[in-house]
Hints:
The structure holds two protein chains of two kinds.
Chain A: H1 17-29, H2 34-60, H3 75-86, H4 89-99, H5 109-130, H6 157-190, H7 194-204, H8 211-244, H9 256-282, H10 291-322, H11 325-336, H12 340-352, H13 360-363, H14 366-393, H15 408-431, H16 437-442, H17 446-449
Chain B: E1 7-13, H1 16-28, E2 32-37, H2 45-49, H3 56-80, H4 96-122, E3 143-149, H5 154-164, E4 169-174
Antiparallel strand pairs in B: 1-3, 1-4, 2-3
Helix pairs in contact in B: 3-4
Amino acid sequence: MYESPIREVLVEGGKTYTDVSNDICRPLENKATKGWWIGFIVSALVLALWIGATTYTLMTGIGTWGLNKTVGWAFDITNFVFWVGIGHAGTLISAILLLFRQKWRMSINRSAEAMTIFAVICAASFIVSHMGRPWVAYWPIPLPNAFGSLWVNFNSPLVWDVFAISTYFSVSLVFWYLGLIPDIATIRDRANTRMRKFMYNFFAMGWDGSARTWNRYELVSLILAGISTPLVLSVHSIVSMDFATSVIPGWHTTIFPPYFVAGAIFSGFGMVLTLLVIGRVVLKQEEYITMGHLDAMCKVVMLTGSMVGLAYITEFFIAAYSGVEYEQYAFINRATGPYAWAYWIMMSCNLIAPQVFWTKWARSTPWFIFVLSIIVNIGMWFERFVIIVTSLHRDYITSSWAMYTPTWVEFSILLGSFGLFFTLYFLFVRYLPTINMSEIKAILPKKQAQH
Amino acid sequence: MKNNNSKLILGIYDDPDKVLAATRNVRKAGFDIKDVYTPFPIHGIDKAMGIQRSRLGIAAFIFAMTGLLSAVVMMVYMSWGDDWNINIGGKPNLHIPNYIPVTFELSILFTAFGMVATFFIVSKMAHGKNPTLMDIRQTDDRIVIAVNLQSDSDHKAISDIFVNHGALEVRERESSI
């Protein structure tokens, strides 16, 4: 068990095993609250916007977007990298923090993993919609074909990305589901309607809590965590190679893989905080997701924010030091050119704003954490926008210079992707336990747990 | 294990430490523990029950190697065969360093899916399977030690061990298997 005189307790309120089951199952066993309905309907309406705008794009083509010959990637890939980045916190929390034996992860890993899966779904939608001909979206998969056979180019980071993202999505899904099984069994045995019993029985796979099964289960979880850790690092490294292996000034930098991974952790924790600061209050889980948890996450945000800030500054230094004219211009243009406003939003949101978490007050004031987590999300979206658009819009020859202005379709897809994300998240909150009950029961202080 | 008596004796607990002690003593006294059902993992229960360390780790390694090999064979075949070779600046067709990302991803993919599938198979888990529960609360807040009752005369000895270690309840039931 987890007791120490100097550490704060992980679960407050002297909970027993029974209390844990009751508290965590309450949101999904009771009738849906008015708040849930409002949230769900609003999200679903925004999702409808996404469906509309995406369908319009697929039917008409990407001419509906503000792209031009010079700026060939903009909102689409910005949104893709943004959502993939957010999708990194879940596996990071459940895998890396598991290997580091950070027990505070246990209250937040379930919802963070759910967030991961939904965020990767959003990210994948941008990959498909940005293809000029989405009906041949299967072409990056090496399938036997009638072209001769013409196989995919395994030297291309875009192909690596297909493998990385699909592996990441499916492994995260398996990891998440495996973690859910014991809890689904708990809900099955508490269920009082036939429909609930049938559904949860179906997904519980006959789980009975046998010690022999637990023994294997723990080993499988550990190995999955062990392989997910390099996986999560590899995914965003490969995403960064989409840029880093090109010859575009501003993209062609070796610092990209670690810098993107730090940014992904940063934005992922930003989104986890956005969701949990609200969720813990609405779902009445303050005793499980304590101020100690928020404090720890704020520290991670501050650390990774400083890491990306260091990377921004390093990029500048290397551009100056390299002596490459184009590289130097790309960075000067970023900070002082027509998109300087985006650059300074990025700098202030990602490097400067998280520094307030050095103070105890900032880390222990939920409304402030919430505001800051939104700032982090905005800042990380702009980071990708800055990297993509400012590096592209002033090409090598001045006659090719162009400006990029997004259209309403792009704005709708961006906004709509939040609808997709939150609709899925609201369904998750309604039908699955948002906290891992079996893990929480295992870390309850011994004396309070039984009655 | 085959026994002539098809009864189980159950000790129901709410404290993992008492369960550990009880399990250890039941086993020491030579009785045959069918299983211990717990709502959360109890550390040390495998030793107390005498469960061997799972060999799933070996399986994981084999799956990882399968994934690695499949990836390498696939990519070498596709870029080395008679099919269209993509000539990029006259560079060699076998670009081993460029194969690393896909090889890595497929190794992970095979390991994860292989491991989890193996786990479901050896644990006899399947979608929609109806579990045989000893107690409806064993997935909630109760821990159940189930011992195979080889002969009725053992009943008292086992239930004494259970009670001495703080069982909330001792009960007998038909073994369903």
